[in-house]
Amino acid sequence: MQNTRLNTLFDRLTRQFGRWVENPWRRLSIIIISLLFGNFLASAIATSTGQRANLDVFASLTLVAIVESIGWLTYGTIFGRRSTEGRDQIIGQRPISIAILNSLKLGLMYGLFVEAFKLGS
Question: Average per-residue pLDDT in the chain?
Answer without folding.
Answer: 85
